[in-house]
């Protein structure tokens, strides 16, 4: 009974220490019980002495088991409940809590002797024989060693822990992949094609084996470099014998490769491509030498490891396909919304763009090489407006399809309601640029349908973030209405407008109306006349007058209230602003298209 009580009070998370402890107690008590049975004369004093010696053994054991309880509690804090692992671990965790609770409850009761009764007085516990004192010291020393072993968790198997930043709702985009394993062999899960073993026609175990081989090769290379460190002026010295042998080995490996694929291999490759398409990497065996293929695999694993580090650092947003930043000319812009770029580009988190042809690339190196070859310095199409360093180009979506698609994908990064990406042929794009000695830099654009039945003069409009709040948005709006005037039509932007677009249009309509009212000298005014002169839709004029509280209904008639305070405020702003950011109608060289 005493052994069972001690085991309950001193139980730990795995139970191994408790069994050893109880076994030691049984071995310690066995000689004493044998000695009592062999003695023929048992006095009351000897009986009390034997009870007190056993009680002292129990009390020393109880002190140590309390410290074991502290170790158990700290162990329970370090390892929380693992409810998502398996049912066995749940049972283990519940067992830990139950044992700890029983130990705490037992502390509230007075310590009991092995017979089950409480000691009658303090003298019963304090008195002990010299032989039992030695036994107590030996037992306490063994228990202290076991307590130290309980704190040492190195003998326990390591528990698999996934990185805390993993989102288990994310999945690998490769069809049929369960997101387990990683191309580098160093991670338990992956969420992108770059780390998918299945996409690279490998298994998770093969990736781990390749990682072990790469680590061994790295150690060997490091060791060989250390041996060569004693050489002075390495740059001017001849290659070592080891380097020459390695070079000959590589040359021999490349010479041994097959000249081409045989018929069976070609059929196998074609079957793999037809069955998986672009969802798997093409088979790469026998295309080049084994040495070069292994170099390519190492480069893939290294790039995947770098992407994983960027993802954990927050620079890469894999799984959500959200591009966070773009490098555009001399600017690095933070994006606002999702844009449907191809997955292999979207998962990177950062895109590099040519500001002239709008081609998007994966890295700074590719962009630098592209800029060395790119001959574009302005948008394609016809330049229909130029004043100072401001120009507007008319780009036909049918003639310059790729440019217009890239422009729409770029615009979607900063527009919420845009839905046009690839079907650009029915639209004309008017791109505003700012010129300097390096070229014409994109400021903003708007698109319009070639044949709009509702007389929409703008389908989509955008000012690049680096040029916002500088008057370019109103210039684009004014230019769109200038085109409507030349076409002798009344225009209106296509709905729904974005938040910033609605603010810009209301501000523009307000200025147009205040300018018209400031120059108007008559007593009766017509909404239709305002619309014909400004090319603004009558509905937009009425809504603007209502928002300015300038439209009143009095005695059965609609009256336009000419608020001089608003006109004076507008004059003051115009004087302060100057005439820098305005559209000059005389600088427009354009005839309306006849339709397609």
TrEMBL record:
GO cellular component terms listed in the entry, alphabetical order: chromosome, centromeric region; cytosol; histone H3-K14 acetyltransferase complex
Biased composition (Polar residues): 66-76, 83-94
MYST-type HAT domain ranges (all copies): 318-592
Ranges annotated as biased composition (Low complexity): 40-60, 119-131
E.C. number: 2.3.1.48
Any GO BP annotation: DNA replication
Active site location: 494 (proton donor/acceptor)
PROSITE patterns: MYST_HAT, ZF_CCHHC
Source domain of life: Eukaryota
Pfam families: MOZ_SAS, zf-C2HC, zf-MYST
Region entry Disordered, spans: 1-136, 209-280, 576-596
GO molecular function: chromatin binding; histone H3K14 acetyltransferase activity; histone H4 acetyltransferase activity; transcription coregulator activity; zinc ion binding
Keywords tagged on the record: Acetylation, Acyltransferase, Centromere, Chromatin regulator, Cytoplasm, DNA damage, DNA repair, DNA replication, Isopeptide bond, Metal-binding, Nucleus, Phosphoprotein, Transcription, Transcription regulation, Transferase, Ubl conjugation, Zinc, Zinc-finger
Gene3D superfamilies reported for this sequence: 3.40.630.30, 4.10.320.30, N-acetyl transferase-like, Winged helix-like DNA-binding domain superfamily/Winged helix DNA-binding domain
Catalytic activity: L-lysyl-[protein] + acetyl-CoA = N(6)-acetyl-L-lysyl-[protein] + CoA + H(+)
Extent of Basic and acidic residues compositional bias: 24-35, 98-110, 209-232, 242-253, 263-280
Localization per record: Chromosome, Centromere; Cytoplasm, Cytosol; Nucleus
Predominant location: nucleus
Name under which the protein is recorded: Histone acetyltransferase
Family, per entry: Belongs to the MYST (SAS/MOZ) family.
């Amino acid at each position: 009974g005493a052994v069972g009580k001690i085991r309950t009070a001193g139980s730990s998370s795995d139970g191994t220490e408790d069994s050893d402890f109880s076994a030691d107690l049984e071995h310690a008590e066995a000689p004493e019980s044998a000695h009592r049975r062999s003695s023929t004369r048992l006095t009351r004093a000897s009986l009390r002495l034997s009870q007190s010696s056993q009680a002292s053994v129990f009390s020393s054991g109880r002190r140590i088991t309390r410290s074991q309880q502290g170790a158990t509690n700290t162990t329970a804090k370090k390892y929380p409940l693992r409810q998502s692992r398996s049912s066995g671990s749940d049972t283990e965790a519940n067992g830990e809590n139950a044992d700890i609770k029983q130990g705490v409850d037992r502390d509230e009761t007075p310590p009991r002797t092995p017979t089950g009764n409480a000691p009658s007085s303090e003298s019963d516990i304090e008195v002990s024989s010299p032989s039992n004192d030695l036994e107590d010291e030996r037992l306490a020393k063994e228990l202290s060693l076991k307590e130290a072993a309980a704190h040492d968790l190195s003998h326990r198997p390591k528990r698999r822990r996934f990185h805390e930043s993993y989102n288990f709702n994310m999945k690998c985009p490769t069809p049929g992949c369960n997101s387990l394993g990683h191309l580098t062999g160093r991670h338990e899960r992956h969420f992108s094609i770059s780390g998918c073993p299945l996409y690279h026609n490998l298994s998770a175990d093969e990736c781990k084996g390749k990682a072990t081989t790469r680590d061994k090769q790295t150690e060997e290379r490091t060791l060989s470099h250390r041996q060569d460190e004693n050489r002075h002026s390495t740059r001017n010295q001849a290659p070592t014998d080891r380097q020459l042998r390695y070079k000959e080995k590589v040359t021999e490996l490349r010479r041994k490769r097959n000249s081409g694929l045989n018929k069976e291999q070609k059929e196998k490759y074609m079957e793999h491509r037809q069955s998986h398409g672009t969802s798997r990497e093409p088979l790469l065996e026998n295309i080049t030498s084994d040495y070069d293929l292994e170099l390519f695999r190492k480069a893939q694993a290294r790039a995947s490891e770098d992407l994983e580090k960027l993802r954990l650092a927050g620079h890469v947003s894999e799984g959500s396909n959200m591009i966070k930043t773009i490098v555009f000319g001399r600017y690095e812009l933070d994006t606002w919304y999702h844009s449907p770029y191809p997955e292999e580009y979207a998962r990177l988190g950062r895109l590099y763009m040519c500001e002239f042809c709008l081609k998007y690339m994966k890295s700074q190196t590719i962009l630098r090489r592209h800029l060395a070859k790119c001959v574009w310095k302005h948008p394609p199409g016809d330049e229909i407006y130029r004043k100072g360093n401001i120009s507007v180009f008319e780009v036909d979506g049918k003639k310059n399809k790729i440019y217009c698609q890239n422009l729409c994908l770029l615009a979607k990064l900063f527009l919420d309601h845009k839905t046009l990406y690839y079907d650009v042929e029915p639209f004309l794009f008017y791109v505003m640029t700012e010129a300097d000695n390096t070229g014409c830099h994109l400021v903003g654009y708007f698109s319009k349908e070639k044949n709009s039945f509702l007389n929409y003069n703008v389908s989509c409009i955008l000012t690049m973030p680096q040029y916002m709040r500088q008057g370019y948005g109103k210039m684009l709006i004014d230019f769109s209405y200038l085109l409507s005037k030349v076409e002798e039509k009344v225009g209106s932007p296509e709905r729904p407008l974005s938040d910033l677009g609605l603010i810009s249009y209301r501000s523009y309509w307000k200025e147009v109306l205040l300018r018209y009212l400031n120059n108007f000298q008559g007593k009766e005014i017509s909404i239709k006349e305002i619309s014909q002169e400004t090319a603004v839709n009558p509905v937009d004029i009425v809504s603007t007058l209502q928002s300015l509280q300038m439209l009143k209904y009095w005695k059965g008639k609609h009256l336009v209230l000419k608020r001089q305070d608003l006109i004076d405020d507008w004059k003051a702003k115009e004087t302060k602003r100057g005439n820098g950011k305005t559209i000059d109608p005389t600088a427009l060289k354009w005839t309306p298209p006849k339709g397609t």
